[in-house]
Amino acid sequence: MTTTPTGSRARTRQAILDAAIEVMARNPAATLGDVALAADVGRTTLHRYFPERVDLLTALRAEAAARLDLARARARMGDDTGADAIRRLCQEYFDLGDVLLLLFREQVTLEDTPGGCDDEFEAMIRRGHADGSIDPELPAGWVQSLMWSQLYAGWSYLAEHHASRHDTLRLVLRCVAGAVRPQR
Amino acid sequence: MTTTPTGSRARTRQAILDAAIEVMARNPAATLGDVALAADVGRTTLHRYFPERVDLLTALRAEAAARLDLARARARMGDDTGADAIRRLCQEYFDLGDVLLLLFREQVTLEDTPGGCDDEFEAMIRRGHADGSIDPELPAGWVQSLMWSQLYAGWSYLAEHHASRHDTLRLVLRCVAGAVRPQR
DNA sequence: CCGCAATGGAACACGACTGTTCCGAATTGG
DNA sequence: CCAATTCGGAACAGTCGTGTTCCATTGCGG
Question: Which of A27, A105, A142, A152 to mutate to test the interface with B (most CBs of B within 10 A)?
Answer without folding.
Answer: A142
